[in-house]
Design a protein that fits this description.
By secondary structure, the chain is of the alpha+beta class. It is about 30% helix and about 35% strand. The chain has one domain (about 1-160). Helix 1 (about 45-65) crosses helix 4. The protein starts with a strand and ends with a helix.
Length: about 160
């Protein structure tokens, strides 16, 4: 299943297997950014919990106290942004590198600047990259994913298993 209508940024969810009671669904969960899937590996990502975390994280992304810096990408010190234990460091980005996407190598950070979501991502501790998308577009992806969760992924189950 594809969530999002832009070819340069969308979400892919595909069931590979499920438990008999449909409570746990496993499969592909990728952000497609400029023709590449992230994390792009791993067919046993737990779709139910990963989807739920993505929806729940959106509220945190919206409520994070950004300083409005809009620091040019080349000037962001990602090593400093990763230093969570040092409370003297002002973190400009909201970090959400956790869960199974992290286990498969996808690290993400976010910043909201006006009506734009700055989506920072790194795969397997490689170079950080930036994709800027309209905040309202990302919100539409989260809302569609939330509807899928509320319907217990019935559209995905039906698509895969009939």
């Amino acid at each position: 299943m594809i969530i999002g209508e832009r070819s340069d940024f969308f979400l892919q969810l595909d069931i590979v297997e499920k438990t008999d009671d449909n409570r746990c669904l496993y499969g592909l969960f990728n952000f497609w950014i400029d023709d590449y899937p992230y994390p792009g590996n791993g067919t046993n990502i737990t779709l139910t919990s990963t989807s739920w975390h993505l929806v729940a994280d959106y509220a945190d992304i919206l409520n994070y106290e950004y300083d409005g810096s809009n620091i040019p990408f080349e000037q962001i010190n990602f090593e400093e942004e990763d230093n969570y234990d040092d409370e003297t460091i002002k973190h400009h980005l909201f970090n959400r590198s956790s869960g199974e996407l992290w286990d498969y190598g996808l690290h993400t950070k976010f910043e909201i600047v006006g009506e734009t979501l700055r989506f920072f991502y790194s795969q397997n501790e490689g170079l950080w990259q930036l994709k800027e998308i309209p905040l309202i577009y990302y919100e539409s992806i989260v809302k569609e994913l939330d509807e899928l969760i509320k319907d217990n992924f019935q559209a995905l189950i039906k698509e895969r298993f009939g």
